[in-house]
Amino acid sequence: MVEEHSSGSSAHGAMARNATFSLDQCREAALAEIDEAKFSWFHVKVCLVAGIGFFTDAYDIFVINLASTMFGFLPESYDELSASGLRDFCLKVATPVGTLFGQVIFGWLADRMGRKKMYGIELMIMIVGTFGQALAGATQTISLVGTLIVWRFIMGVGVGGDYPLTAIIVAEFAPVRLRGRLMTAVFACQGWGNLGTLRPLLQPL
């Protein structure tokens, strides 16, 4: 009886080792296939999708500098935060604070539920937050600026999820010999997004 139990345990252990070995082989084969792949339209599409995400992230974060200046022309009765000097601070800090929460939350969820699924969820949060800002208005209980602060925090949560997930997705699908160049191209879109916020200032008066 003891011998049968011992032989059964040995067989089970051998099967587990073989399964682990097979899984490692599959991973090595997949990584080798990615590294040996030639530059193709697929890599261009990955860079475009990821680059557009970084472009919109930077634009959404830095465009508030222009909007905050425009709010300076509002009468104090329309914006209760202008008198206390908190308007600019709250508008500009709401998104970075949301980004901090988004990076922690989506980084943890992506490891457990999959990066592809989380990538779609954080994108929807960014879209909802952006539309919320576009449709924001003053009510009897909260001002226009207060509404924008709430929506910018929500958008920041989505932006925080987009930063790490986009970088990881590009790195995973890029061959080692091209990874640095593709990552540089994607992150360069942040600069273009920041530059895009200056577009209204370039209009002729």
Automatic annotation (TrEMBL):
It comes from the Eukaryota. It comes from Amanita muscaria (strain Koide BX008). Signal peptide: none annotated. The chain crosses the membrane at residues 46-73, 93-111, 123-143, 149-174. This is Major facilitator superfamily (MFS) profile domain-containing protein. Residues 46-205 form the Major facilitator superfamily (MFS) profile domain. Keywords: Membrane, Transmembrane, Transmembrane helix, Transport. The keyword Transport applies. GO terms for cellular component: membrane. InterPro entries: MFS_dom, MFS_sugar_transport-like, MFS_trans_sf, Sugar_transporter_CS. It holds the Pfam family Sugar_tr. GO terms for molecular function: transmembrane transporter activity. It is a multi-pass membrane protein. It is found in: Membrane.
